[in-house]
Amino acid sequence: MDDISVLICDDSALMRNLIGRIVDETTGLKVVGKAQNGQDLLDKIPELKPDVILLDIEMPVMTGVEFLKERKARKIDVPVIVLSSVATEGAAVTMQCLELGASDFITKPGGSSVTLKISDVSNEIIDYIASYGGSYASARGKQIPEPSFFDRQIKLKEAERFVIQKKGEEGAKKFTISQEDFAGSSLWSAPKKKEPTVITPVREPGKIELIAIGISTGGPNALRDVFKMIDPRLKQPVLVVQHMPAGFTAEFAESLNRICPLTVTEAKDGEPILDSHVYIAPGGSHMAVEHRPLGDFIKITNEDPRNGHRPSVDVLFESVAKVYKNHALGVIMTGMGRDGAAELANMRKEGAWTLGQDQASSIVYGMPKVGFEMGGVQKQVPLMKMADEISALARTHLNA
Fold first, then answer.
1. Does residue 84 carry a catalytic annotation?
2. Which of 243, 277, 286, 309 is an active site residue?
3. In sequence order, which residues have a C-beta less than 8 Å from that of residue 228 and are 6 or more positions away?
4. What is the pTM of this model?
5. If you placed Cys at 246, which of 29, 51, 114, 284 could pair as Cys (CB 3.0 to 4.6 Å)?
6. Catalytic residue among 339, 358, 362, 391
7. Within 312-376, where are the H helices?
8. Is 40 a catalytic residue?
């Protein structure tokens, strides 16, 4: 098996070393180089040929934004994951980076305790490198392990950290996980294919009154592709859960609004659900639909995370199945894990129309795969045809 090669660009030597350590301690990932600014990065790409780039934004000589502009001009196709500040101005610049072609972003810890805080995002760093870098490396002919291989490492390392916290360094030594623990060929093999469960809906699909979309890793750019091509005459409201931290979804909604023919906003608690309107779940909160005597409304809550996420796709899909039953369209797209899969199957059981993104076009074929295996996906669709498929179904089934 081949390693996913990583190039780290940050003007902070501390951040380069901390992130580099996370990468090099993960079997299947390898740091091939480090750069101090965008110009240094441009100079190193041809020689090092990375599968993925981790990019800071604020740097001397050439900033991350300036690098992305130059990357676009030079037609460099290596995926870029931005290391972003959580500040309000950071959110705006991060969305600009996505518009310039960055694949995704990770919120970078700051402050005096950055050495301790980096562990809070280490799992996300590994996830995103494995997803975006793995996809690019595979397209270049490399033999890369399945995402589940990296997911298992994350879980075992979490268990190790938990034991250390409880028992201390000495007491945890016998639980320590080494690189050799992942050397067995069975861990590198692809999982067996699972036949999908067959669901018999309790009622026939009816007219589509609402569209619900759930998406995670690979989502920011996938949603841009969908909404810039969506039918401008679409009548139904669209509710979207994109796994994203608090402080970024308002800017993300605004960035989509600039390219979408429909109105796109961050959802607010208690607002009525309007036709031809796209609502993005606010980061850090769950979004659901609620039926009242005067109509249907958005419900935003801060209940505990579900499937490890808040917002959770399952929370949205569950409420849609309850309120709309067979008068909805559920769509599950690229993302790691299984959030949304169970409740998409429930939507299907209630008689809703359902779609899932196909494996070939998914950055991570996790959520749509589990949704398909659980019987929740009527039809698998490539990303470039998703907007047309959604628009056609919504148009065809607008009326009973």
1. no
2. 243
3. 259, 260, 387
4. 0.89
5. 284
6. 339
7. 313-324, 341-350, 367-373
8. no
| Helices and strands in the chain: count of H runs, count of E runs | 14, 14
Long-range contacts of 134-143 (CB under 8 A, 24+ apart): 134/4, 134/51, 135/79, 135/363, 136/51, 136/52, 136/77, 136/78, 136/79, 137/2, 137/4, 137/5, 137/51, 140/51, 142/2, 142/4, 142/51, 143/1, 143/2
- The reply to whether 391 belongs to the active site is no
Helix (H, G, I), strand (E, B) or coil at 249: helix
Q: Which of these is catalytic: 216, 312, 361, 362? A: 216
Q: What is the pLDDT along the chain (400 residues), one digit of tens a residue?
A: 899 999 999 999 999 999 999 999 999 999 999 999 999 999 999 999 999 999 999 999 999 999 999 999 999 999 999 988 755 567 899 999 999 999 999 987 665 455 556 777 888 899 999 999 999 999 999 999 887 788 888 878 777 766 766 666 555 555 555 545 554 444 555 556 678 899 999 999 999 999 999 999 999 999 999 999 999 999 999 999 999 999 899 999 999 999 999 999 999 999 999 999 999 999 999 999 999 999 999 999 999 999 999 999 999 999 999 999 999 999 999 998 999 999 999 999 999 999 999 999 999 999 999 999 999 999 999 999 999 999 999 999 998 6
Within 8 A by CB and 6+ apart from 345, the residues are 197, 199, 371, 374, 375, 376
